[in-house]
Amino acid sequence: MMDVRDFVVSQENGVKGLVDYLTLTTLPSPYIQPPQERLTSDKILSSSSQIPVIDVSEWTDTDVAREICDAAAKLGLFQIVNHGIAPEDLKAMIAAAHGFFELSREERRMYWRGSSVSETAWLTTSFSSLKESALEWRDFLKFEYLPTQHDFAAMWPLVCKKQVIDHFKRIKPIAKNILNILINNLNSTIDESNEKNLMGTMRMNFNYYPECPEPNLAVGTGRHSDINTLTLLLQEDGVLNSLYARATEDGDKWIHVPPIPGAIVVNIGDVLQILSNDRYRSVEHCVAVNKLCSRVSIPVFCGPVHDSVIEPLPKVLEKNDEMTRYRKIVYSDYLKGFFGRPHDGKKTIESLKL
Ligand SMILES: O=C(O)CCC(=O)C(=O)O
Ligand SMILES: [Fe+2]
């Protein structure tokens, strides 16, 4: 019998390598999730109308600002349309991500984390594979955007390099517009001193979820909130029943986030929840996998630089005469907490609650 974990993780084949190598009819045991982690139909709310879809063609419109701030406060997740990125460009991104995962196993492996040919792009599988009792059915290639550093993308895979750089450039002003709206609503502004805390880093994933023989027993990405400020995510059109958001903080009910052609999903991360002293909510989400088709998703994560000190904005506390709800922390320590354990809901932010 083959050691699946060893083949996927240690031998750097990824789960994509596994499905290409074997004809699987059952889910290999390292991927079998305990029942409480499976997204069974009784946990899924029937209507998807609860995910706001916001037309952002007029960024300065006060109604747009209000809708964005409301959605950030209630669910912590919404979709935007008419954001200015052409549908063809979004389709080209999805195709570029598939292009990478369709490269040969050897070509993909050149980017494996720890020995990647690029310092700013690396491939890995699952999330925290050494610590997880059950693996996630996902490989991902991560890109770090360092436009001030000459040749940061020199070694990126040619099959997607241009598209990834273009996507970072197109997403950045959209992220800034949304952050501006959210921060203005907290009686603050984005200026030179805090821009680094809000969007001093930008990273992108190509998440790849291969077809899965027993999707009901597996997860693609386990329950988590993103830890950064804001994530702008591109979903693959037509692949339904993948991304789910937790409906309320305390219940085990999940809302489907449907792919809408041309739309971008926006979700609030832990850092914005902390900066706003809980006015905005980082949303817990997870990803289910499919039996018959693979899926890619492309999140762009805007976040603080690593030495930022994360704590509620003074203006928020002053204006409302309230106490901070969080212990302050340097962002690099926050990252260590998150990446040091398997995906586990909102455990990282909860560990800072006073
Ligand atoms: O695949 C998705 O739709 C979401 C992935 C995700 O949550 C993440 O990469 O943080
Ligand atoms: Fe996420």
Automatic annotation (TrEMBL):
UniProt cofactor(s): L-ascorbate
SUPFAM superfamilies per the UniProt record, alphabetical: Clavaminate synthase-like (SSF51197)
A GO molecular-function descriptor: metal ion binding
Coiled-coil ranges (or none): none
InterPro entries: DIOX_N, IPNS-like_FE2OG_OXY, IPNS-like_sf, Oxoglu/Fe-dep_dioxygenase_dom, Plant_2OG-oxidoreductases
Keyword field: Dioxygenase, Iron, Metal-binding, Oxidoreductase
Residue ranges annotated for the Fe2OG dioxygenase domain, each copy included: 200-304
Biological-process GO terms, alphabetical: coumarin biosynthetic process
PANTHER family according to UniProt: OXOGLUTARATE/IRON-DEPENDENT DIOXYGENASE
Family statement: Belongs to the iron/ascorbate-dependent oxidoreductase family.
Name the UniProt record assigns to this protein: Fe2OG dioxygenase domain-containing protein
Lineage summary: Eukaryota, Viridiplantae, Streptophyta, Embryophyta, Tracheophyta
